[in-house]
Amino acid sequence: MTARRFRLGRAAPLLGVLLTVAACSGGPDTDGGPAQATAAPSGSVAAVCDKQPAGPAAAPAGAVVVDPAVPGDLAAKTRSAGSGTTFWLKAGKHILGDDKYDQVSPKDGDVYIGAPGAVVDGRKINQYAFTGHAVDVKITYVTVQGFAAPHDEGVVNHDSGDGWVIEHSTIQDNDGAGLMAGARQQVRGNCLRRNGQYGMNAYSGGTPITALVVEGNEIAGNNTGDWEAKIDGCGCSGGVKFWDVDGADVRGNWVHDNHGTGLWADTNNNDFLIEGNLIENNDSAALIYEISYNAVIRDNTIRKNNWADGRRYADKSDNFPTSAVYISESGGEPRIKARTAKIEISRNYLENNWSGITLWENADRFCNSPANTSSGDCTRLVPSVKQCAAPAITSGALLADCRWKTQHVDIHDNKFVLDPAVVGCQASCGRMGLLSNFGSYPDWSPYRGDAVQESITYKQDNRWHDNSYAGPWTFIAYSADRVIEIGEWEGAPYSQDSGSTFTAQGGG
């Protein structure tokens, strides 16, 4: 698992995403800055917590009825029934037993349907709710809460079974991750909130997860355990974390008030479509795409993110552009099959985040480098970590392919709005970044010196154009100490933001 970063340093449509002043859920102000309040959205983006459609009030024909008055009834009836059974959970609190490993192990094709008010409660005794390697399991209209999963483990689909469908359910107040993921999993219309580490941890530990759909969910208030404080630099918290996922559609979700990053794709992800989401009021970035490939990020509304992390960096005079969208050692790669051969960031509306978009590539981070915190992983272009070693890495294909490169990133037709008075910041906010560090480690690295700084800035087809800016934006290019104004950013040698418009006054 990887650390978050190596520390060295035309207008967009709103897609019908309008805010109301009702149903506010205040986000805690963790750093002494302005208090934030999140209003429930209307339109195309999900606001489903406490508003889930009701499940059937009577058992469907042929369903096995599960009685909450009988402790362990759900697990026992699952064991005794054949595969493909439908279970209807009566209203009330269902408990699993008094051992931490009392859990439900579905069989292939099993279906779990909750009546209105059906809750599966772990009472902070049981670690897991639904486990095992069964395929094509469906869970719908059920609340799952109070389970004590360990760090990096999950409560529902603990073992990353393939083909699971989780719909119209509430997974809340659990330790660890509320939900794990397998291939072909569909997560639709759920409330994933107040879980200790993640709302969902899309990590299988085996073959890559493929064809993942995350649609119409409200993902809120996760990382109650504050794991970044417990394990410094762990990169192990937030709304959703994606690991080694090859094909994902993430659309129409409301991702808000998470104590960390909203959506975080980390380590050899590929072929993502992230569209039509409302991502707001997260303590860290709205979206991180890290050591990964090929993505379309479009038509999202992204606002009031990274206030906590941005202020922390500013308070310690760290000049790194802490951004709402952070692309870290990630880019387009035509040799890897996907729906696109670049990272395209377009038609997004970004308002009053601490900063905008940062493209970063750590010169010292590559396959087999001690500076790569995903130490057991190599790039998707090189099958073995051991291949990326001197002297072979110093020339030929390995010189290029042992790196995760920030390349072929196309940022266009976005609107960036900043009012520093709203954000509560001074000169350190309102930045775009295109930069690397001076390579220095390890001593056998072929990427020492300014080679990566030159490449990410001038040679790797990273381009801003046709965007709209409102507010006092500045830019960091090449290295963290090079802060430049609009004219320098547009002119040689950077030649960025052709066709873009700039107005000094912030506001929508």
From TrEMBL:
Residues 1-22 form the signal peptide. It holds the Pfam family Beta_helix. Transmembrane segments: none annotated. Coiled coil: none annotated. InterPro entries: Beta_helix (IPR039448), PbH1 (IPR006626), Pectin_lyas_fold (IPR012334), Pectin_lyase_fold/virulence (IPR011050). Residues 158-308 form the Right handed beta helix domain. Keywords: Lipoprotein, Signal. The keyword Lipoprotein applies. The keyword Kinase does not apply. This is Lipoprotein. It comes from Amycolatopsis mediterranei (strain S699).
